[in-house]
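Hi support team,

I've been running sequence recovery on a batch of backbones for a student project. Most finish fine, but this one hangs at about 90% for roughly twenty minutes before it completes. I'm not sure whether the input is malformed or the queue is just slow. I've pasted the structure tokens below so you can try to reproduce it. Let me know if you need the job ID as well.

Thanks,
M.K.
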């Protein structure tokens, strides 16, 4: 187990805000889990757990321990005529993991290509894109209790997956840490290339999925997702960001009708329970905030859902811009946007919004 002290956190979260932590622990091997628990017992500090730091932002110095889960590896653990079950370590980088599956012609996760983060972070947020949420493909998650040292495997049906949420965001999950994830990937799953951006890219490339063998069609959808994301979203390795910063608001039928009354042209997507999902990017752009800047942080000029670090942004800049976006959209449309990433304040708790 690697331990560092007085750590600059800019290299440990993708928004790269200036902040320091008292200690950093990196979990890389099986033996490190017990060593982490022993460290926690010997030197108790508030802790924040991260993967690649793409959904956690440190907006202030943190006088505690940041624990980076960096275990790697994946393998096929079961297979039938219709399904392939793959177990991946929590620290496995998500985008290369998906790309490795697709390179073998194995479908099921191709719509989630090129998303920053790790395998272990994926179920926490129930990441989703282009018509697929990862919870649909998860069979079970192996978790470890950092206080007791207990390990257990939990079926996906017990994890309360929802829109960008899961059981892991509840108080009951506070001391449980994901060690590995099992994915059940159907061998003959129907492709989901139906988003207009994907269709346009495939058409521009002259690709007809029906003309391709199954493995080639999976690769084509993967390549379309990668290309579309690269065209729309800034690369966090180049420009500090955390991807989509605001959740798409979910409105009741009455709230949807009120929004339509003040903005008849607003796009919305009906959900099975009668509620409506509204694109936060549309609300932000229509409120005139695309490209808005406060200090060293701005709303991205390509995609209004993304806030970016211009190179000298601070946690205070980020919070000010976030609240400006929230207040402006609320005043214009009566909808309060909520941030998607976890914002960590000085005491290691989520910043109150």
């Amino acid at each position: 187990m690697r331990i560092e002290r007085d750590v600059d956190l800019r290299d440990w979260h993708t928004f790269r805000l200036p902040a320091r932590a008292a200690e950093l622990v990196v979990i890389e091997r099986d033996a490190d889990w017990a060593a982490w628990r022993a460290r926690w017992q010997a030197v108790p500090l508030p802790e924040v757990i991260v993967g690649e730091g793409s959904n956690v932002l440190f907006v202030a110095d943190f006088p505690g321990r940041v624990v980076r889960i960096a275990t790697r590896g994946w393998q096929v653990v079961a297979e039938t005529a219709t399904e392939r079950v793959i177990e991946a370590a929590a620290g496995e980088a998500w985008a290369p993991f998906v790309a490795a599956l697709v390179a073998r012609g194995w479908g099921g996760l191709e719509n989630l290509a090129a998303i920053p983060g790790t395998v272990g972070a994926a179920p926490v947020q129930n990441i989703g894109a282009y018509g697929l949420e990862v919870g649909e493909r998860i069979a079970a998650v192996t978790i470890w209790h950092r206080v007791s040292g207990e390990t257990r495997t939990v079926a996906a049906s017990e994890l309360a997956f929802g829109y960008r949420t899961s059981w892991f965001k509840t108080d009951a999950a506070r001391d449980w840490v994901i060690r590995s994830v099992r994915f059940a990937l159907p061998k003959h799953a129907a492709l989901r290339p139906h988003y207009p951006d994907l269709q346009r890219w495939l058409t521009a490339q002259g690709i007809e999925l029906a003309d391709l063998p199954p493995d080639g069609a999976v690769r084509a959808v993967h390549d379309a997702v990668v290309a579309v994301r690269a065209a729309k979203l800034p690369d966090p390795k180049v420009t500090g960001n955390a991807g989509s910063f605001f959740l798409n608001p979910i409105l009741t039928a009455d709230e949807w009708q009120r929004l339509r009354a003040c903005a008849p042209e607003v796009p919305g997507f009906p959900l099975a329970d009668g509620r409506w999902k509204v694109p936060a990017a549309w609300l932000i752009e229509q409120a005139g905030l695309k490209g808005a800047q406060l200090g060293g942080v701005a709303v991205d000029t390509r995609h209004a859902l993304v806030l970016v670090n211009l190179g000298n942004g601070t946690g205070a800049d980020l919070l000010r811009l976030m609240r400006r976006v929230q207040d402006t959209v609320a005043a214009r449309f009566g909808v309060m946007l909520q941030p998607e990433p976890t914002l960590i304040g000085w005491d290691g708790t989520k910043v109150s919004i």
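--
Follow-up from support: It reproduced on our side and the slowdown came from queue contention, not your input. The chain has three domains: 2-69, 74-231, 240-344. No action needed from you.
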